[in-house]
Amino acid sequence: MSETVDTIDADQDEETTASAAPAAGASAEAADEKQGGDDLLVQEGDIAGDYLERLLDLLDYDGDIDLDVEAGRAIISIDGGEDLEKLVGPRGTVLEALQELTRLAVQQETGSRSRLMLDIAGWRADRREELRELGRSTAESVLSSGERVRLQPMSPFERKVVHDAVATVDGVTSESEGEDPKRRVVIFPEG
Hints:
Layout (H helix, E strand, L loop, with lengths): L13 H46 L3 E8 L2 E8 L12 H18 L6 E4 L2 H23 L3 E2 L5 H11 L5 E6 L6 E6 L2
Parallel strand pairs: 2-3
Antiparallel strand pairs: 1-2, 4-6, 5-6
């Protein structure tokens, strides 16, 4: 995070100095607010880590829990043991369910809804790369063919990654259609 600091020349009149003070105070308040938000996210991560550690103990699964704060949300990843693949499930369905349970455990302790992201055995990170490639290559195909393409139904996480990848290709756009759990991304030429 970078902050700018205004230097006030000693020869400036009081009026100019007084008008600069609220701006400096405002940036200090914004920094305090961000720090407070980061503190809440660290607290969410700690609560989630404790919850997931108890779960792993109950299941007698080995795994290392890593907590991080990134892009305004707590990120929890579990890596290590061979049994962890079972906690991902087919197409990440078990992972999504565990993420929701972990969010509810955090909400029960903090009283506010959590947006934490859970990854197990690197599945979400690997899936993100696959989806970026799918979104980019499909967008390029749509650009050359001029035909719209509907992708298979996806989770909100998956759709977001595809939309972001499509946005990097000029001349095409995307939107989601349908209702969960059959909501899907449609990619089509602009204009």
